[in-house]
């Protein structure tokens, strides 16, 4: 068995068995729902643990046969073959259990706030920010997630100077959390008559979406201002004051919403503010994460890139894990599973290494 996780395995087995007994005792509906929820959470871990325990017992039985002096040569040979196969299976099960026992990110099951901003590169950076948002939007559709746009600041030639969206569904943050950082693009802009390759960048921030219960915002800590909304061509000139700016005084975070509905602007601004404050709180509590929001997404400078999208070569490179794929077209269509799986695997390996070192 896994010596480094043995105590944890025994604790989980005892807890699971206790839940089975308590559920069989017909508790009140409220208690039953709570137990059933914990049971469903533990079962995917307990099942492979039980298979692993049974396999280890089978291995011990085979070794007993090998050590028996009365075992004939033919039986000895067959048992040795079974033992080799079983050892490989046990190794696979041990790795599976190790991964299942890794510390869970408490935010993995949360929805997410996705923020994309144009960085270095002017008009081309805004166009790239638009490409990135559509990429994530297409991936969200493939996962049956819901995307709601909270705020848009369009670029002068298309794309977005900034776009913020709320993405909800199963496992949203667990999949998207590795996307935070600077994304760099290399391509020839449509406006480039000389065919020169340009390099631009956009920043991506993925924050866990939180409820009021997760973050307490005291009324005296915020300042709310209403302003007259203005848009291209003076389209809001004749409307009532509707834009909302909320400033969180202790943190210095400011959120501005400029849609037509003041009530909706206030609600969305508070949603974004809660996400940013919660993210700041998580960063302070977790030394593995950045110490501030600025450190997470960087300034938009090309040198802080986490990923490069090279259009002429059809190449995408994730610099954190040295992964290069010549599938840029598919990636931009939202086919992100291969990249996400590689990032998750790399993260699991890092956690396993840290566990062994402690």
Number of strands: 11
- Shape, please? flat
Instruction: Show unreliable segments.
Output: 231-240, 287-293
Helix content: 40-55%
Strand line-up in the sheet with most strands = 2-3-1-5-4-9-10-11
Decide which structural class fits the backbone.
Answer: alpha+beta
Largest sheet: 8 strands, mixed
SSE sequence, one letter per element: HHHEHEEHEEEEEHHEEEHH
Gyration radius, in Å: 26 Å
Multimeric state: single chain
Report the mean per-residue pLDDT as an integer.
83
Percentage of residues in strands: 15-25%
How far the N terminus sits from the C terminus, by CA atoms, comes to: 19 Å
Q: How large is the count of helical segments? A: 9
Characterization of this structure:
This protein is an alpha+beta fold and 358 residues long. Helix content is 46%, strand content 20%. The protein contains nine helices and eleven strands. The strands form two sheets. An eight-stranded mixed β-sheet has the order 2-3-1-5-4-9-10-11, with helices on both faces. The longest helix has 39 residues, at 29-67. The two termini are 19 Å apart. Mean pLDDT is 83; it is low at 231-240 and 287-293.
Offer a few descriptive terms:
single chain; 358 residues; alpha+beta; eight-stranded mixed sheet; 46% helix
Mind sketching the topology for me?
Layout: H1 6-24, H2 29-67, H3 73-100, E1 112-118, H4 123-142, E2 146-154, E3 160-168, H5 172-176, E4 181-187, E5 198-208, E6 222-227, E7 243-248, E8 253-257, H6 262-285, H7 293-297, E9 305-310, E10 315-318, E11 323-325, H8 328-332, H9 337-357
Helix pairs in contact: 1-2, 2-3
